[in-house]
C-alpha cells in the first residue's frame, strides 16, 4: 500500500481526477508506458481526504505502479527504466498559468515534480510534488478532468492516450477545439510533421488512428475531427487554424463509486469498464452477420417449400 513519510496510507483511486491545468501539461517525449506511469502516480496523489498527505512525499512500490499502470508484464529492469525515464522527462514538463487582464498580466510556470528517489534494489520510489501544484490536486469542486484510470491503460498509442484525456475534460459537452499550435504541443506532434507540406501526416499517423481506437474500444461514440481554415491572403490558399472534435456527450460525472471492484483499499489491477477490443468487436459483427444470413436463409427455404417438407425440416434442424 502506498503511504507518505508519516506512514499514512493513501486511499486508492480508480478514477483519475485532476484540475484542468494539470491535464494541459505538455508531456513532451513520453512513451505510452511512461504516460501510464504518470497517470497512475498522479491519480493516487490527488484528492486524498488527508490534505497533508501530498505534502510529505509519497512512497510507491514497483508492484503497485505495475498494477495501476497495467505493466505487470514488464521485467523489473524494464519497469525501473520506464519509471526513471518518465520522471526524468517529467522534470522538463510544465504548465503555464496566465492571468491576462489589461495592466495585470501575470504568468506562473509550474514544474509538477520536484524530487524523486528511485531504488531498484528496494523496488520502490519516493515522489515529492511541487507545493505549487498541490491546490490543483485536492479539494476539486469545478473545472477538473476525470476519467476511469483502467480505460486509459487499455490504449495502445500515446496519441490515443492524450486525445482521451482531452476528451474527458469536455465529456459532458461533446465538443472542444484547440488552436493549431496549441493542439500540436498538447499532442506532442513531432516538429517534422508540423511543416505545412507535411500536415497530412498528422491525420494519417496521429489523429485518424487515435479516433479509430477510441471509437472501436467504446471509450467514445461518433468521435470526429474537423479542421478549420482561414484565408492566407493569397488567392486559392488557406491556412489551417484550428482542430475541432465532436463526439456523443457523456452525461455523467465520474467518482470512485462508479468502479465497484474493491479489495479492502489495496492496490490491484482494475478491469476497464465497457471497453471493447477491436477483435471482440469484429467477432460480434461476424456473429451478427451470421445470424442475419441464418434468418434470411430460413425465410428463403420456407418460401420455396411447404411448411412440412423434408427440406424445411432439414434446414430448421441445421440453423435452430
From TrEMBL:
Domain Initiator Rep protein WH1 as annotated: residue spans: 18-168
Annotated GO MF terms: DNA-directed DNA polymerase activity
Disordered: annotated segments: 254-309
Compositionally skewed regions (Basic and acidic residues) per UniProt: 276-293
Domain of life from the UniProt record: Bacteria
Biological process terms in GO annotation: DNA replication initiation
Signal sequence extent: none
Pfam families: Rep3_C, Rep3_N
Family: Belongs to the initiator RepB protein family.
Identification of the protein by name: Replication protein B
Originating species: Lactobacillus crispatus
Amino acid at each position: 500500500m502506498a503511504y507518505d513519510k508519516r506512514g499514512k496510507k493513501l486511499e486508492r483511486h480508480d478514477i483519475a481526477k485532476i484540475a484542468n491545468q494539470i491535464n494541459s501539461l505538455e508531456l513532451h517525449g513520453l512513451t505510452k508506458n511512461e504516460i501510464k506511469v504518470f497517470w497512475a502516480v498522479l491519480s493516487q496523489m490527488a484528492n486524498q481526504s488527508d490534505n497533508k498527505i501530498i505534502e510529505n512525499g509519497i512512497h510507491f512500490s514497483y508492484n503497485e505502479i505495475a498494477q495501476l499502470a497495467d505493466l505487470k508484464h514488464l521485467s523489473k529492469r524494464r519497469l525501473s527504466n520506464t519509471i526513471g525515464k518518465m520522471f526524468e522527462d517529467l522534470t522538463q514538463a510544465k504548465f503555464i498559468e496566465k492571468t491576462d487582464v489589461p495592466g495585470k498580466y501575470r504568468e506562473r510556470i509550474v514544474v509538477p515534480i520536484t524530487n524523486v528517489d528511485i531504488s531498484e534494489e528496494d523496488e520502490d520510489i519516493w515522489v515529492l510534488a511541487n507545493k505549487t501544484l498541490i491546490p490543483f490536486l485536492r479539494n476539486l469542486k469545478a473545472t477538473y478532468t476525470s476519467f476511469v484510470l483502467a480505460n486509459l491503460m487499455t490504449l495502445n498509442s500515446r496519441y490515443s492516450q492524450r486525445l482521451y484525456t482531452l476528451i474527458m475534460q469536455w465529456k459532458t459537452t461533446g465538443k472542444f477545439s484547440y488552436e493549431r499550435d496549441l493542439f500540436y504541443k498538447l499532442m506532442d506532434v513531432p516538429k517534422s510533421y508540423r511543416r505545412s507540406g507535411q500536415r497530412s501526416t498528422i491525420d494519417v499517423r496521429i489523429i485518424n488512428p487515435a479516433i479509430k481506437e477510441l471509437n472501436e474500444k467504446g471509450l467514445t461514440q461518433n468521435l470526429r475531427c474537423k479542421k478549420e481554415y482561414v484565408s492566407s491572403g493569397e488567392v486559392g490558399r488557406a491556412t489551417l487554424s484550428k482542430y475541432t472534435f465532436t463526439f456523443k456527450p457523456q452525461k455523467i460525472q465520474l467518482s470512485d463509486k462508479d468502479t465497484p471492484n474493491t479489495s479492502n483499499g489495496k492496490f490491484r489491477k482494475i478491469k476497464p469498464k465497457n471497453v471493447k477490443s477491436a477483435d471482440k468487436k469484429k467477432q460480434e459483427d461476424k456473429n451478427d452477420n451470421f445470424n442475419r444470413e441464418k434468418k434470411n436463409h430460413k425465410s428463403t427455404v420456407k418460401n420455396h417449400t411447404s411448411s412440412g417438407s423434408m427440406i424445411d425440416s432439414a434446414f430448421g434442424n441445421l440453423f435452430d
